[in-house]
Design goal:
- This protein is mostly beta strands.
- It has 2 helices and 20 strands.
- The strands form 2 sheets. Strands 1-2-3-4-5-6-7-10-11-12-13-16-17-18-19-20 form a 16-stranded antiparallel beta barrel. It has a 3-stranded antiparallel β-sheet with strand order 8-14-15, with no helix packed on it.
- Strand 16 and strand 17 form a beta hairpin.
- The chain is globular, with a radius of gyration of 21 Å.
- The N terminus is likely disordered.
């Protein structure tokens, strides 16, 4: 993996050499936009106490730029902890090539997310959806074709022992003392017209390592996905099949975020099928979008200690000006976020479906 960084930088340099006619304008006036968000959440659970309507998040954002250079950062305060979301700088090398560095979204699968609901899909809790890590990414767009190549140094805090974070990363826990190390990502996507709408079809892959913090030994960490999205008028359909693998001894590894470590199957397939429809402006609302997001984690090597986890989210988002409200019904079978022990694991309890009703009201400035 240490040889991958020079190769990536060489690729980035060769792909961003500027001819005079390709150089982006450097006369763009400097700008700085400061914003944020305040969100409130209510949750009814059939497997635990109801959570009354309470403050869920405070958020600060900044976007700035001058000429071909940009900067974007976001910091979040939750109940009991605070965490960075992202902090990155960008260089628009040509009209079609962008280089970004810093804590940024990892280019894997459908972007920006493989879901429409507030709580995302199974991939988010497995660290392969809406994940933010420190690295360098070169993005290139040529007509209907889009490429991403990126190198990431590990997780955003450089340690698996910190559990108060936004992104789900490998955790250092007793018996499973691991942390993320180098990773190289490749992503390709092509757009085309089909059935009166736009289709995005692509594939993603990554290869890297995780490190045992006690033995200092490195183990392989790999993943791949094929994905497609179709949009026509108010309809959006998404399908994705991803597979990840941690080459660690045993059948499990631990992840953590939001101060809660949990175990997952070390090798699993993650299918996702989503359907959403935007009704557009409705009376006093600017938009109503309703959706159903179905996803699962299916261990590749079935053992007595692993089994399939499933999550389905049905709901709607309602937007009016700066206010965005999500109403979600989340049902999970052996799913960590919905009352399960982990994801893709079996600790002996009988499998059962559990659910929760979630209301999130946010004001975005």
């Amino acid at each position: 993996m240490k040889k991958a960084l020079p190769l990536l930088l060489a690729t980035a340099w060769s792909s961003t050499e500027l001819r005079a006619e390709d150089a982006p304008s450097s006369t763009t006036a400097p700008y700085a936009d400061i914003g944020g968000a305040v969100r409130f959440n209510y949750g009814w659970l059939d497997y635990g106490p109801t959570s009354r309507l309470q403050l869920e998040l405070l958020r600060a954002d900044i976007k700035a730029g001058s000429g071909p250079l940009t900067f974007s950062a976001q910091y979040r305060w939750y109940d009991g902890f605070d965490a960075v979301h992202h902090a990155q700088v960008g260089w628009q090398a040509t009209e079609s090539t962008l280089v970004t560095a810093g804590i940024q979204q990892v280019p894997f699968g459908l972007l920006p997310t493989v879901s429409q609901s507030f709580w995302f899909g199974a991939g988010y809790y497995l660290g392969i959806e809406d994940d933010y890590d420190p690295g360098v990414v070169v993005s290139h767009q040529r007509g209907a074709h889009a490429w991403h190549i990126g190198w990431f140094a590990g997780d955003e805090y450089g340690t698996g022992s910190r559990t108060d974070r936004y992104s789900f990363d490998v955790a250092q826990v007793p018996g499973l003392p691991y942390r993320e190390r180098d990773r190289v990502h490749l992503r390709y996507e092509r757009s085309t017209d089909w059935a009166g709408g736009e289709v995005l079809v692509g594939a993603s892959g990554f290869s890297g390592t995780v490190q045992n913090t006690q033995t200092r030994r490195h183990h392989g960490h790999h993943g791949a996905a094929v994905h497609a999205q179709w949009q026509r008028e108010g309809w959006t359909a998404q399908v994705q099949w991803a597979r990840y693998r941690y080459d660690v001894p045993g059948e499990r590894i631990a992840l953590s975020a939001f101060q809660a470590p949990f175990e997952i199957a070390a090798h699993a397939d993650v299918p996702s099928v989503n359907l959403a429809y935007s009704f557009g402006e409705q009376r006093w609302l600017d938009d109503i979008t309703c959706y159903n997001n179905l996803s699962a984690a299916r261990p590749v090597q079935r053992t007595a200690g692993t089994r399939t986890s499933v999550q389905n989210v049905s709901g709607c988002s309602l937007q009016k000006g700066i206010m965005l409200t999500y109403v979600d019904w989340i049902a999970g079978k052996d799913m960590w976020f919905a009352g399960g022990e982990g994801i893709g694991i079996n600790d002996g309890r009988p499998p059962r479906w559990r659910s929760r009703l979630n209301l999130n009201v946010g004001f975005y400035f």
